[in-house]
Amino acid sequence: MALKLQVKEANDIVDVVGSYITLRPAGPTYKGLCPFHDDHRPSFDVDPRRQRYRCWACGKFGDVFNFVQEYERVGFPEALELLARRAGISLDSLKKSQHGPSRAHMFDVVRWAAERFQECLLDDPAAESARLYLGERKLAGEIVRRFGLGFAPPLGEWLVHKAAQAKMPFELLETVGLVAKRTEGTGYYDRFRDRVIFPIRDMRGQTVGFGGRILPSSPNAAKAPKYYNSAETPLFSKSDQLYGIDQARQAALKAGYLAIVEGYTDVMMAHQHGVHQVAATMGTAFNARHLRKIRGVVERVVLVFDADAGGEGGVDRALEVFVSHDMDLRIATLPAGLDPCDLIAAQGPGPFEQALAGAEDVFEFKLARVWREAQAGVESQRKAIEQMLGVLAAAPEERSVKMELMINRIAHRIGLKEETLWSKLKELRGKRRSNGAALPGGRSAVEAAAPSPLQRSDSSEQPASAPAARHEIELLEVLLADGALVETAIAQVSPEDIEHRGLRELLKGLYRLHAEGLQPDLDHLRARLDNERLLDKAQQLQERGLIHSDKLEWLGEVLARFEERRAARRTDEIKNQVLAAEDHAQALEVLKRLQK
After folding, report:
1. Tens digits of per-residue pLDDT, 409-425?
2. In sequence order, what DSSP letters do the residues of 170-181 get, joined into one string?
3. How far apart (Å, rounded) are the C-alpha atoms in residues 391 and 324?
């Protein structure tokens, strides 16, 4: 238990949260955009004095453990392990997860593999062709090292042999997508072969996966995919990641925007020439998951397209993100046939920076292109209008200021009445609903009907009934807010006095900690309970309890209500005995006991 407190004390919540999202000082606290919902203004508050965070919009709150659990989508043991490693605290005494490899161990294996790939590129004679290729792309050695590039030799078991020598568990390498089991026979084979390796890092610089570019000189170049990404793993999802975001984050914050390109070498060439606010998608269009990842860093995104492809699917999908979220999204176009890497290598960073500076609002960009291509007649214009309104139909069904402005711009450009466009938009939204569009919030009926942990139930499989009694809730609020009062409560309240099952479990946990000589608080309780929803409620109870100034007096009032309930029950029992008495003498005897 002491180790868990040590881990918490070694991880200042401002430093930890600040490694995920951008925080700015706001008096005694720090503020930023909440990473847990589509935050439109800085609603996320981090308090270094109390080592807590709270979003005043969506209600998420907690300590540094809660934040890592929510953001990384892991349980408490893994959050504890990640924070311990972050602080350089030994993990020897930590209890390992019994449900498969931990996230921290996955990070270790991926980092180990990245180091082996880079060693191969820099030192192994087998990587000479890869070094020549990178030189032909005019990528400098310094930028290659900064981005951690590596090489996977063509041998089918090169990494497998390295792992065997290092005694790395093959099952873990398979989990993170580095090796795969052979379909015939036994053993494993490398998933990356004869490829330049681009480590994919998250916002904090941790390697989560890899991208591999087949060498043009490879015998397999004609039949193998040009680029090959890690498979979906607990650490990596290509629809989630932005290549180079760890290198671009601070520059984007300073510049006020992040530029999104389409290739690894595009990112590296831009950084090599001093344009650092550049990252790339992983072969997917810019989407809402990308937006949620970076909206705490910047409020503007510039998507960079080749002029030949600038108005196609990528812009359409980006426009759907734009109309559904508060984000300044712009489009920059480059000369036809040139990607950023080739443009910068040939002409320097000037033309690329000019394209970024002249980026056009994505809505206006799309509207101008659609209308320019719709001059063949009335029918082509009708289709153009439906195309634009079809994108708007993906947005939430509300007449927001943003939606009003977009409808106004379409009407002004096309020369139609706004009422006509609103009517058509309503029709298109109706079609989307009838085709099974997602419900607001994305919640299923099961999730919407899920009972709260603070509803009474004799079994977790039974339907929820009445909420917990107020005095039971307040007992846990005061005890979770001040663990020193547990000793007082033990003498007067038994766990069996608590009717609500969840609250009874929390009280039992606090009592057990006290009996073992440990501090009966939420930090110790968290390690004992394997019920995340109940622990979330415990956090809420503690938050409410901390508001009260005189907790000892409050506990006295709560204990008095417990005694009143016990007295009322005893009275009811005696009254029932009076009514059940068989004769007058027996009834008088019962009444005498009641008077006493």
Report:
1. 888 887 788 888 888 88
2. HHHHHHTTSEEE
3. 10
Assigned token pair, 125: 């004679």
Query: What architecture is domain 100-236?
Result: Alpha-Beta Complex (3.90)
CATH number of 2-87: 3.90.580.10
For the chain, what are the domain ranges? 2-87, 100-236, 373-430, 468-573
Cβ–Cβ < 8 Å for 281, 290: yes
Residue 437 in 3-state DSSP?
Answer: coil
Q: Which CATH superfamily is domain 468-573 in?
A: DNAb Helicase; Chain A (1.10.860.10)
Query: 0.90 cut: is pTM over it?
Result: no
User: Which carries the bigger pLDDT value, residue 119 or residue 36?
Assistant: 119
Rounded to 5°, angle at Cα 237 from 231 and 240: 155
pLDDT in tens, 228-287: 888 888 889 888 899 999 999 989 989 999 999 989 999 999 999 999 999 999 878 888
Torsional class of 211: left (φ above 0), alpha (ψ -120 to 50), beta (otherwise): beta
Measured distance CA(53)–CA(50) in Å, rounded: 9
DSSP letter string, 571-590: HHHHHHHHHH-SSHHHHHHH
Block residue for tokens 């063509």: 154
Q: Which two tokens stand for residue 413?
A: 């450009």
Distance CA 278, CA 300 (A): 12
3-state secondary structure 367-411: HHHHHHCCCCCHHHHHHHHHHHHHHHCCCCCCCCHHHHHHHHHHH
453, 454, 455 from 468: Cα distances, Å: 10, 6, 6
